[in-house]
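[worker-b] picked up task from shared queue
[worker-b] task type: protein-ligand structure
[worker-b] ligand name resolved to pyridoxal-5'-phosphate; SMILES cross-checked against name lookup, match
[worker-b] sequence length check passed
[worker-b] input payload:
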Amino acid sequence: MANQSFQAFTFQATHLYAENVTASSLAERFGTPLYVYSRAAIEQNWDAFNQHLPAPHRTCYAVKANSNLAILQLLALKGAGFDVVSGGEIARVLKAGGRADSIVFSGVAKSKAEIEYALEVGILQFNVESLAELERISAIAQQRKQQARISLRVNPDVDARTHPYIATGLEANKFGIPMRDALAAFSKANQLPGLQVVGVDCHIGSQLTELTPFLDAMDRMLRLIDELAAQGIDITHLDMGGGLGVQYEDEQPPAVGDYIQAMLAKLADYPQLALYLEPGRAIVANAGILLTRVEYIKASQKKDFVIVDAGMNDMLRPSLYQAYHRVENTVQGKPLITKPVDVVGPVCETGDFLAQGRALAAEEGDVLAVFGAGAYGFAMSSNYNTRVRPAEVMVDGDAAYLIREREELEQLWQHERLADFKC
Ligand SMILES: *Cc1c(COP(=O)(O)O)cnc(C)c1O
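[worker-b] inference finished, payload out:
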C-alpha cells in the first residue's frame, strides 16, 4: 500500500521527525503555523501512480490540491502531467517548469480569457463540462485558426459514498453532462468547427475509499465509448479523474496499484484507449503536516480547549467537512490532559476547530502536528480575521527549503485604497 505505508513523519524516541529533521526545530526556525512537506513522500506517492500507468496512459496531478510552485516543480521534474481548473493554475504550472502540452483543463466556468490563454500556450486538452462551453471553445478556436482538443466530462450518476460536498458524480451536481445527453453532446462536438474530439472524462468525487464506485463509473463510460464507436466517433482516451482516498483516521482506501490495475483490466478489449487519472489528494495529503503552537489551555466543565495559533483560515477542512485529522504533540511524554480536548484556533467562529473530543497531552508553548495536511490545506487557506497565511517548507533528507514565506501584514491590504472622501 504505497499510498499509506510510507511514513515521512515518524516519532523517533520522543520527537516527531519530518524525514531527518525534528518538527520542533522546524517550528523554531520558521515559526508557526507552518506547513511542512516531505519531498520523499510526494515522490513516492507520484511514483506509485506513474509506475502502474506507463505511456500511453498518463497521470495528471490535480493542481488544486496543493499548488505551491516547488511542489509543481518537483512533479514537473518527474515528468508529471497536470489537471488544472483555472487560467491561474495553468500559469502556475508553466512558472514551475511544467509543460503546456501536459495540461488538461477542467472546470465548469472557463472564461473566454482562460480559453484563449489555454489555446495560446497549447495545452493538451479541455475537459468540457457543458454544451455552451463547447460552443464557446469552438468559436474561439475557429477565430484563432486552431484546433482545440477536447474531452467531454460526462456525469455517470454513481454515488461515490463520500461527504456530500465532495461528491461530484451524481446527477444533482453541477458538474459534467448527464449520461443521457452524452451521445447528442458528442455528435454536436463532432460537427462544430475548431474542435477535435479525443476523449471522455469523469470525476465522481473525492476521498473515495472503495473501488466499486470507480469501477461502476468506468463500466458506464466504456458503454458510452462503445456507443460512440458505433456512430463513427472514435475516442482515444478515457480520463477517470481523481478521487482516490487516503487514510486520515482508520479508513482503508484501496492501494494505488490495486486501483489502477482494476481499471486497466477493464481496458483489455480496448487496445486503442489510454487511461488518464487526475489524483490530487493521493499525491500530497499524507506528504504534509501543519505545525501549530499551543497558546493557551482553557478548562471548561466537560472538556478542555487547547487553543492554538492555527485557525480555520489556515486549515479549513475540519470546519468545512467535519474532516478528521490526527493531532499529536511533536514532543511526546507530557502528561495527558484529563478531559477530552477540542483543539481550536484564534478565529472568531464557533466552527473554528482543528480537532474535537481528543485525548491529548499538551502544555502552553508546545508544538502540535496536524497530520494529513498536504492536500486542500494551504490551498484552501485565507486571510479571514486579517491573519497572514502560514509559511511552507519542504524537507528533503536533512535539508529544509522555505518554499513560501510567511505573509506580512502590509501585504494583506496592499490592494486596498482609502477612499478620497469629499467631506
Ligand atoms: C478536484 C479534482 C481532482 C482531484 O481530486 P482528488 O480527490 O484530490 O484526487 C481531479 N479532477 C477534477 C476534475 C477535480 O475537480
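[worker-b] attaching auto-annotations
[worker-b] The chain has two domains: 9-37+285-412, 106-279.
[worker-b] releasing lock
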